[in-house]
Amino acid sequence: MAGVAAALAEVSFRSLVTSFLLISASQVLFFAMGWIFFMEMLYRDYDVRNRAVRTLFAATFAGACTLFELIIFEILDVINRPCRLLHWKLNLYFMLTNVIVVLPLYQVYIYLLGCHPKSPLYHHRVKLSVFAWSIWFYCFWKISNPFPIGSEHVSWFSVESGIGRVGVIGVTLMAILSGFGAVNSPYSTLFFFLRKVTATDVMLAERKLLQTVEMLYSKKKKLLLARERHAQSLLQHQSSASGMSRFMTRIVSSIQSGFARDDANIGVLQTEIDALSTMLFVDLDDLNVEFQRVHFSYTWKGRYYNVLGHFFSIYCLWKVLTSTINILFNRVDPVTHSLNMVVHWFGLELDIEVWSQQLSFVFVGLLVVFSIRGLLLNCMKFFRAYSHTLSPDNIVLMLAQIMGIYFLSTVLMLRMSVPLQYGSIMTEVLGHIEFNFYTRWFDVIFLVAAVVSAIIIVVSSQYQKQRDQESLMWTKKTSQLHL
Predict the structure, then answer these.
(1) Contact 207, 239 (CB under 8 A)
(2) Residue 16 in contact with residue 83, Cβ under 8 Å?
(3) Could you tell me where the DSSP H helices lie in 298-351?
(4) Among candidate residues 370, 354, 362, 313, the one with its CA nearest the CA of residue 183
(5) Which of these, 114, 174, 382, 464, is most buried using a 10 Å CB contact count?
(6) What does the pLDDT look like over 204-256, one tens digit per residue?
(7) pTM score of the predicted model
(8) Burial class (CB in 10 A: 0-12, 13-18, 19+), 255
(9) How far apart are CA 1 and CA 397, in angstroms?
(10) Lowest mean pLDDT among 81-85, 212-216, 429-433, 450-454
(11) CA distance 333 to 316
């Protein structure tokens, strides 16, 4: 905190009050936005009554948005430099303390609080929370050993030591999400990749679902009747039974041999039936979604989105190519570098410094908007997928921690995306961090994630086509049998 005291000494009282009023007002607005998102999106489906959890989520959201606000202030030169430096340090200390100490410690405490009141875990929850956090902090601190993230002779309580380690986790997460998005977004937005689903396919899938559910419950009913009334008698008179009786005996015997003879097996069978029914419902829902997309593709709005999808696909391809070039030639500051190339190729007379400022502002704004939107959408998917197996309080705290790590790492990446003259305070605050390492690390993980995602999408699409063909053949065959 010595850096905060030094920055505070350089600020005049009037400038300090003005900057604090401006930043505080924006933080209140960001906090309200985070609270509204929590109440409208997360709390709408899942009950989180712990007010501290809501407050931590909204505060983390506000801190992340304030980081981006300070970056924009840096480019536009809003507020004098000493005040910006002070707010940078205060906000970074808050975010680092939140994601490294407060959120993981409270996650463990909330988990232990959910144990039975007579359990030893419940009675010693404070001590166990501190012990578990100590293990987490040790692993977190040792994460820097294989990576050249910065100077080795820095204080444990410095911004550099904290954000350097957070950056390794966050940049890896960003690269994986970006690599997957660069491949999956064109696949999802372009109508060229749509499955050719017709109304007949949806109707056949509905018929298949109904037939399968009837068959499964009929099988369960027969099994229960066989176990309760006829299993023992059929086994005792197997030798004297008729041909049809021997056939039924073999069916019942095979069913009974596949399951243990206790009440728990009925639950296992019920679970299997429910799982298969759920899978069929999901398949039917996917078909309906694809059918609606095919229908939407013929509308004017759908064609407009398809055109936008082509432009976005070009951008994704450009991103993959530039990542490859960055790895090979170690290039940074893509805004100024690209602007220099355009001026050189077309012989334009432009003030590169002025235009790089404006383009950097636009680039940062777009990246901020899409980063927040993309992360929150992924958070929603994660929350809905695991809300039935984990405590809602723990999930929200986990999402808040991921959000904080993600946006702290975005600051590192944005520092390499703006010209040096517009990121001098960021460089000063972050210390001797090796920015080039994070850029190259992002590009490498991004390319690996893009390649792996492309392979997964190709394999899954082929598997889906095969499943569609088998499902269609099975449905037609069963329809003929019923006729």
Answers:
(1) no
(2) yes
(3) 300-329, 334-346
(4) 313
(5) 174
(6) 666 666 666 677 677 667 667 666 665 556 555 554 544 444 544 554 555 55
(7) 0.66
(8) middle
(9) 26
(10) 212-216
(11) 18
Compute CA distances 480 → 38, 206, 475, 483, whole Å. Answer: 51, 16, 9, 5
Q: 432 — phi, psi (to 5°)?
A: -95, 40
Residue 260 pLDDT: 47
What is the per-residue DSSP string for 229-274? IIHHHHHHTTTTS-HHHHHHHHHHHHHHHHS-SSTHHHHHHHHHHH
- DSSP count for the chain of H helices, then E strands: 18, 0
Burial 154-181 (b: 16+ CB within 10 A, else e): beeebbbbbbbbbbbbbbbbbbbbbbbb
Quote the CA–CA distance of 379 and 56 in Å, as a whole number.
16
Whole-angstrom CA distances from 46 to 32, 387, 390 are 20, 8, 12
Q: Are 475 and 207 in contact (CB under 8 A)?
A: yes
Position 95 scores a pLDDT of: 94
Amino acid identity for residue 13 in this structure:
F
- Tell me the C-alpha distance between 75 and 428, whole Å: 15
**What's the chain's length in residues?**
483
**Using CA atoms, how far apart are residues 382 and 244, in angstroms rounded to an integer?**
52
Coil, helix or strand at residue 174:
helix
Residues 6+ apart with CB under 8 A from 480: none
Task: Give CA separation, 106 vs 36, 58, 133, 152, 167, in Å.
Answer: 22, 15, 9, 30, 22
Count of C-beta atoms within a 10 Å radius of residue 364:
21
Tokens 């069978």 locate to 269
What are the pLDDT digits (tens) for 406-423? 888 888 877 766 666 666
**pLDDT by residue (tens digit) across 308-337?**
666 766 766 777 777 777 666 665 555 556
DSSP 43: T
Fill in the DSSP letter of residue 300.
H
Interior CA angle at 108 toward 104 and 109, to 5°?
115
SS3 405: helix
What does each C-alpha distance from 77 to 67, 82, 197, 461 come to in angstroms?
15, 12, 54, 49
Q: What share of the chain is helix, strand, coil (3-state, %, to 5)?
A: 85, 0, 15
The contacts of residue 270 (CB under 8 Å, 6+ apart) are: 220
